[in-house]
Known about the structure:
32% helix, binds zinc ion, alpha/beta, homotrimer, TIM Barrel, seven-stranded mixed sheet, Rossmann fold
Amino acid sequence: MTHVGLPRALGTCYYPEHWPQERWEADARMMAESGLTWVRIGEFAWSRLEPRPGDLQLDWLEKAIEILNEAGLKVVLGTPTATPPRWVVDKHPDMLAVDEQGRPRAFGSRRHYCFSHEGYIEESRRITAILAKRFGASVAAWQTDNEYGCHDTTVSYSDAACRAFQRWLEARYGDIEALNEAWGNVFWSMEYNRFDQIGLPNLTVTDPNPAHALAFRRFSSDQVREFNRVQLEEIRKYSKAPISHNYMGQVTDFDHYALGADMEIATWDSYPLGFLEDRVVAAPEYKQAFARQGDADFQAFHHDLYRAVGRGRWWIMEQQPGPVNWAPHNPAPLPGMVRLWSWEAFAHGAEAVCYFRWRQAPFAQEQMHSGLLRPDSSEAEGLREVRQVANELASAPKVEGNVADVALVFDYDAEWAWAVQPHGQGLSYFGLVLAQYRALRRAGLNIDIVGPSTRDFSDYKAVFAPGLMHLPDDLRTALEEAKCVVVLGPRTAARTIDFEIPTPLPPSLDALQVTVTRVQSLRSDCPVALEGGGNAVGYLETIASEHEPVLEDSAGAPVAVQNGNLMYCAAWLDDEGWDRLISIVAAQVDMVTRSLPVGVRVRRTQSQEFWFNYNAHAVQTEAGEIEPASLIMRTL
Amino acid sequence: MTHVGLPRALGTCYYPEHWPQERWEADARMMAESGLTWVRIGEFAWSRLEPRPGDLQLDWLEKAIEILNEAGLKVVLGTPTATPPRWVVDKHPDMLAVDEQGRPRAFGSRRHYCFSHEGYIEESRRITAILAKRFGASVAAWQTDNEYGCHDTTVSYSDAACRAFQRWLEARYGDIEALNEAWGNVFWSMEYNRFDQIGLPNLTVTDPNPAHALAFRRFSSDQVREFNRVQLEEIRKYSKAPISHNYMGQVTDFDHYALGADMEIATWDSYPLGFLEDRVVAAPEYKQAFARQGDADFQAFHHDLYRAVGRGRWWIMEQQPGPVNWAPHNPAPLPGMVRLWSWEAFAHGAEAVCYFRWRQAPFAQEQMHSGLLRPDSSEAEGLREVRQVANELASAPKVEGNVADVALVFDYDAEWAWAVQPHGQGLSYFGLVLAQYRALRRAGLNIDIVGPSTRDFSDYKAVFAPGLMHLPDDLRTALEEAKCVVVLGPRTAARTIDFEIPTPLPPSLDALQVTVTRVQSLRSDCPVALEGGGNAVGYLETIASEHEPVLEDSAGAPVAVQNGNLMYCAAWLDDEGWDRLISIVAAQVDMVTRSLPVGVRVRRTQSQEFWFNYNAHAVQTEAGEIEPASLIMRTL
Amino acid sequence: MTHVGLPRALGTCYYPEHWPQERWEADARMMAESGLTWVRIGEFAWSRLEPRPGDLQLDWLEKAIEILNEAGLKVVLGTPTATPPRWVVDKHPDMLAVDEQGRPRAFGSRRHYCFSHEGYIEESRRITAILAKRFGASVAAWQTDNEYGCHDTTVSYSDAACRAFQRWLEARYGDIEALNEAWGNVFWSMEYNRFDQIGLPNLTVTDPNPAHALAFRRFSSDQVREFNRVQLEEIRKYSKAPISHNYMGQVTDFDHYALGADMEIATWDSYPLGFLEDRVVAAPEYKQAFARQGDADFQAFHHDLYRAVGRGRWWIMEQQPGPVNWAPHNPAPLPGMVRLWSWEAFAHGAEAVCYFRWRQAPFAQEQMHSGLLRPDSSEAEGLREVRQVANELASAPKVEGNVADVALVFDYDAEWAWAVQPHGQGLSYFGLVLAQYRALRRAGLNIDIVGPSTRDFSDYKAVFAPGLMHLPDDLRTALEEAKCVVVLGPRTAARTIDFEIPTPLPPSLDALQVTVTRVQSLRSDCPVALEGGGNAVGYLETIASEHEPVLEDSAGAPVAVQNGNLMYCAAWLDDEGWDRLISIVAAQVDMVTRSLPVGVRVRRTQSQEFWFNYNAHAVQTEAGEIEPASLIMRTL
Ligand SMILES: [Zn+2]
Ligand SMILES: [Zn+2]
Ligand SMILES: [Zn+2]
């Protein structure tokens, strides 16, 4: 929590290489006048920094940084490795990632590299070192690359990835018999004689061994961290500025905690309207109602997640300022939403909110992505709200320490395990955790998302940890011994580290006697009713336990059981089911809950309480009436 | 009908190679105590039988067979050719099948071989001979390979398949001019100069010539039979035990009659809940109502089909005992269904019902597939019902001769012809025959499914033969001369052997003057009403006939016509239409029909009448009230 | 308008190579007796004209032409280049087109060539020259190739296409810096050093640069024109007969105006029922109501479009005469529709209507496509209606000059630009123009579709030109200076020639001050209501203008503005919106409009007024009651 006391700040993303140098000063002046203090630059500029192999052209960037600094702006410099120029690809033709269908992913957009390609890793090290050496002293922060994993780029099925995977497996398992044994390769005669026989788990006749698939997901995540570390190593040789990476929404293919542990700040790119359209799972009526506002929990979830990834220090590096270009539909935000999104980030502890982008580009892929300025430099709708936020910030508290009664565990490894074996159509770990998060938000609670390496839960009244398919021993111990109420399940500890069903059968807890004896996945039109209201939906375990059920189905079978502080919930629940579960827990730990209406959410910092209304209509709350697409800030 | 008088038996599928040898005896003892008499083993064990090229390790299998035999269990030994180990693929890299998109189907699961690869055929012969020689005397039956065609593996677009197809065509047509003429290759200048110019019918710009596509389907089916025959040849050198293969549900890519003719017993793998989800075509409400019971006709259809394939001798080799792992949703069967499914098989004449699998595997692809035991060896829900069936069998009749008033022709060649040219979206021969089968079942009739080589229909009061697109001359004669009522159409005799529309126009029958003058396919929202009730749906022929119509549309156009025993129905009908058609036929042949409610079905053997209730609620019938998911057995 | 005064004629498509020579005379006689005067032949006959390289067999074709000519029939001879025989592909293995997924499109159907393959271009030149030399004097017209672009064949991702694209770009941009600048390749470091580095815009990680994609679309269109020109060059060396090409419905991948400018006549292939099923975008209820009649505007649109492409001279080369074989569902036309479709073509100015095909082929891909005769040479249903049309033509006026109050601009380049950047799911330029065309038809107006090279609008009272994303300067001037009302927008002039957003912001008109300040795409469930009725749907621009709004949204924001003759409409409207817009314009220019019911349409020539009823029920109109699937012809 090193950020406490910093001023809450605003910023923007700027591409000096897109505009004539004559405009730079006017741009910088206008940014400063608008209340911005941060500018991110450089992250796609490789073809201008090195137009031909070895032909370095860094003066223009130095000039741009100077102009920005002189206007009082601080610079975040991005390494340009998300966009290697054509000549880099010509030099390393096999550096292209390969998709699951076996097709090389061609040059012509961005992120066209395989994390495992050694030649490209060296190019990345080289250009990073050059930038770090030249600009290490003049920039206030760094960003590595751009949006790792975006466009499904974490996983590559290239030859380079295959060879690296074989080495990774050999390092992990030592000898091939150990791997065969660990994966159960005797099944279907999948046993290998040597590591170099192991292929990638794509294009198999039917599903590959889930142990094989999960190992490949873990390997792929490790490759991202290794790739990133090479840049950190070079930057730190020459610069003391903090380093960050801008994560995306719901990109879960690599372990963000692992990368976060290597850097000083986590940032993320928040596009509420695009995300609602292209990744939030919701009924059409819901998407209709929030088409111009976004989902009221999706951004908040990521704020809380990336606060954990950044160990307290986090920003929005790219905030949607108007219509975007890339979603199935790209409406304009309701007036007020840019301000609301900005304040929501601060309410969750952001140090800075930067808008993407300063001026809309008239060319190329994102020409329909709005900026704070239009292509002709006139002011776009969003800029007015940014100015308002800047004014409000002047009299607002600085960044404060975080407060939350509830922790919710989110584990990337569990996400991969569920993806490898969802067991039922549409079931995902991310979906399960988000469903539980939504229910906690409906109850008006502040939530900390915490990673699976957390061992100390003493700050919390309750911990929710659904779906942790593999539960490391020390986490199991920490959860069992926590003094707060801990809600586990479904699917907790269902697999060993190598994706085997353990014996004794899961979850095999010391502090709570419960056994999963059967697992079902349910059609969406076949919910199983709970006694007293709500339903199990999608995923349901049959459990045997000597303890009294906390929830049971209408036939009397236990659905959730508890012993002391430890509770196990054997099902994915519907909204009413989650609400009941949370009420039960809240009553036990003396935690006040609310029942917030759709689209209304509350978030507290140490000194403030924020009420957000995502609806297009005014809503009456205990904090007073909130205007459509607006918020109330109360001092506590 | 060689099976009459055998005791009805139970069994299971067991994988000794998955468990420590110390457990084998206890397992065997428990199987026997549970009332099982058959155990299938070995069919995926190649990597343990031959871990490296030529390194044979057969002792463990001998030990396993000994232990099972000593416990009083009879062994079915499977050849392990569905799962060639990695080293086999390394030796023959081009043995992998190639999918329709041109991608090799990689190692890492099962069935990763092309039936046309000569190197692999020899590997298959070699390992089969080795097993037959060593175990020919100690096993009670054989199974070749496993589930031919499962995972869409009958058809391969590999180079090996292409070369074999060219040879197959040359053998069939002799010279290239004959092929060009037969296929009408003058159309679109598709004429070839030599057989080695002929490619496979995938990835063409628009549809390939249907004659080309159909020839490739026939070739692909022949390759399965040839592959299987190599194993039969080796086994029979060393063993007198009967040989079987375990077919799947609705895998129609190869001619099961052809394989069946080469072996003593047909078996199949029955997964009612998985099949309902992933292959039965039905409204969501129907799938919801039967999600935990399965479709009330789908298994019965296959029982009747495989009875024909086995020329009277058939088993269930794999019976679902609880939730499976591979369907879009995997619920648990309603209590009672494992018993119901088992008895339904016996009612249709099964000699044995074996449950898949004895103990749930804790690892690899099928770890979520339930067994009779859980991974920790505790008893799963299904085992209780298996014990009940075993008890009931003790006092039940033995396997009896079959009785049926009605024959329904099912022809794999017609299935391929319709697939090559469905003419309308969603139309399939399988769907047409199943629709007619369902209607006959609603009428409470016992049905024999018969193959297209049937010439003697004297056992039957009525024969239904819809959709036989190519009608061989002698089958045509047999049907025209049958003494019972024969219902043909739609699409009967619509094509020559080489997929040409014949002149005179179809169906061109001697005993019934009717001509199809036009063919339509209909949108699902554009049914054509029949006078008196019911509709033509999907597929409708305009026919000209001098005979009185049996059914006509509301505009007075004939839809079905009859002369003497021979009837032609020119349309795919809806349920009401089929029911009317069957009533008309039943009245003519003095056949008593019922009108059974949804989910209730009747089946008679020589001495017993079985009433099955697939519903989740009790149903009142003439045989009395049947409990949910239960049955009534009456002695006749 | 060179066609005025020609007799309206009928014809058919005939394949003498499919039938024994003995039938040819009887066929020719029967055609003539049925009232046909034109016969198209030869377009798929390469394998019979040249069965082996250089082995020319032209005598049979000469004989066929003789027989047809002797029966009084005029022949259109097609060049056979849509179906190169197998040996041509063996000679040029890399002539196959490559699909967007990178897969060669195999031999075995038709159109299996890449327009950019130089070897194949020479084969095409060679066979065309041979035919032109031999038959240049004996045929009355020519057709080049067959249905360019059908089966998605305009665009090929082959190596040949890539190299040709690089040359095309070099010719267009001269040096690589100019291209980088024009495309904005600085964005994401997509800058090239040399033209030979530029790949095709497929399989990129995320969207390619839209400038890149659009250039490739333009190049691909140019390649079709170049391919066609080679044939024109050869034919004109030896023949004075007019040359045509048979275009398809809604194939918009190449610029038909460009090809049309090179030839004397435009023809197209009209399959109303197939098109309704497989390309018309409409609600299921609409498709159900018109399943046997087709869409009441789709054919008319193409009649008007191809009249423009043919600069007044156009035919239907293939008219659906009964059920087709290739749509998702293939019902029979309602009795009367073949006549209706034929007369509708004449009402729009067709010189000839030819039916596809004379006799149904009993073999190969189109065996289920009905002809005027059945495969057994009996007369099919359609022929009766053709005879009726022939009789009616005897006393009908000849082809007349066209009359229309309204012009609607259709621009292929705009279609590609929208396809490259639809901005919202389901939005297309074709859809926008068709929606406006439908509204003009509902108003009972005669419409001329005109190309983007039109500069003289003096014949019209109103011009509609929606969606012209790039507006060339001289067209802009012509539209601004036109004396009639000109309705532009949405998206007019939104891009420079190189797909950049221009400054000043679009549409930047001299005669109307309006600026698009923001662009949105809308979910289909999020329409924006207009004040007074109707909605903006799908696509909506925010505009700033000093002029009074003609339409505004319910919040008072302008949606359409006008100054003098020039109007800009900033949205895609729903039916009510378009109707209101047209009413406003009609009132200004004193143009009488009707409000025609669904399925009823009117079309006038100089001396006749036609009323068409596409409905399956009779409709009362001011011209009297029209029978179902019928028409009324009134002399003016
Ligand atoms: Zn971004
Ligand atoms: Zn199986
Ligand atoms: Zn055609």
